[in-house]
Amino acid sequence: MANFRTHLTVAAAGALSATALVMQTVPISQMQALLLFLLALHAGLLPDVDSDHSIPARILFTILSFATAIAVIFHYYTSLNLLPLLVSSLLAALFVRLVLLPLFAATTEHRGLFHSVPMALLFGIGSLFAGHYLLGWQVSFAWLAAAFVTGGYLLHLLLDELYSVNFIGASIKTSFGTALTLFSSQSWRSYMLLYAAVGYGLWIAPLPQQFTQ
Predict the structure, then answer these.
(1) What is the pTM of this model?
(2) CA torsion, points 82, 86, 91, 92, in degrees to nearest 10?
């Protein structure tokens, strides 16, 4: 399995290459190009959130804790005084760090569902819906962002599989086949739910349109 630095380097190189290609073929702004690069870069690190002590997991839940605190402030700033508002936002952030993070760590297994192709597709679809319906992106850009997220995610899985092969000694490690996974009979119920979620997401997703800036 590749380490964090290797994943970060490859993710950055892949995201930069894909962004440069899109800028040559699709009418996007510089800010949109930067956003696509960042989406692919972060997606290239995302699968390792199922590792309890990984850097991506700590980064993700730190961002979530700050985002939760900010969301509480924006939601209750008109109904709470300053001190109760700050205490509520702090408690919300601590809940994410001290409750949700340990719960997530206890219920996930490294190289489990997060190291699978359907999870990559699901994150892509999730970014499509979040971008279009929550952030107001046009459909064409939302689909492009979804492709970058899925592509970055799959690049991480592919790199893990390549690191499972010893090309010099022409041997394969026991971890081979545990990253770029399509299906597992041991977790077939979970995989069926993943594929059902992906299928439903594609069914209700807005249709791609011709790209306009």
Answers:
(1) 0.76
(2) 100
Tally of CA atoms within 13 A in the half-sphere of 180 that contains its CB: 15
User: pLDDT digits over 164-175, tens only?
Assistant: 654 344 445 544
Please state the domain extents for the chain.
4-51+110-204, 62-108
- pLDDT tens-digit profile of 19-72? 999 999 988 989 999 999 988 988 888 887 766 556 666 776 777 787 788 878
Q: Give the whole-angstrom CA distance, residue 156 versus residue 139.
A: 26
DSSP per-residue string spanning the chain: ---HHHHHHHHHHHHHHHHHHHHHHS---HHHHHHHHHHHHHHTTGGGGGSTT-HHHHHHHHHHHHHHHHHHHHHHTTTS-HHHHHHHHHHHHHHIIIIIHHHHHHH--TTSTTSBHHHHHHHHHHHHHIIIIIS---HHHHHHHHHHHHHHHHHHHHHHHHTTEETTTTEE-TTTTSSSBS--GGGHHHHHHHHHHHHHHHHHSPPP-----
